Amino acid sequence: MATGRLEFFPAEKPVEKPLPMKLAALVLDEPTPSFAAVLTRNAFAGAPVVLARRLLGEPLARGVLVNTKVANVGAPGGLEDAQLLQKAVANELKEEPQRLFVLSTGVIGWKLPVEPMCQLLPDLISSLGQGDLLDLATAIMTTDSYPKLRSVQLGQGRLCGVVKGAGMIEPNLATMIGLILTDVSVGREELREALSAVAADTFNLISVDGDQSTSDAVLAFSSRRYPAVSAAEFRDALHRLCAQLAEDVVRNGEGTAHVIEVIVRGAPDRATAQAAARQIVNSPLVKTAIYGNDPNVGRILAAAGSSLGRIAPDVDLSGMQLFIGGLRVYGEGCFQLGDEAEKRLSTYLRQVSLPEVRDYPPHEEKVLIELDLQCGPAEARLLGSDLSHEYIKVNADYRS
Amino acid sequence: MATGRLEFFPAEKPVEKPLPMKLAALVLDEPTPSFAAVLTRNAFAGAPVVLARRLLGEPLARGVLVNTKVANVGAPGGLEDAQLLQKAVANELKEEPQRLFVLSTGVIGWKLPVEPMCQLLPDLISSLGQGDLLDLATAIMTTDSYPKLRSVQLGQGRLCGVVKGAGMIEPNLATMIGLILTDVSVGREELREALSAVAADTFNLISVDGDQSTSDAVLAFSSRRYPAVSAAEFRDALHRLCAQLAEDVVRNGEGTAHVIEVIVRGAPDRATAQAAARQIVNSPLVKTAIYGNDPNVGRILAAAGSSLGRIAPDVDLSGMQLFIGGLRVYGEGCFQLGDEAEKRLSTYLRQVSLPEVRDYPPHEEKVLIELDLQCGPAEARLLGSDLSHEYIKVNADYRS
Question: What's the pTM value of the predicted model, to 2 decimals?
Answer without folding.
Answer: 0.78
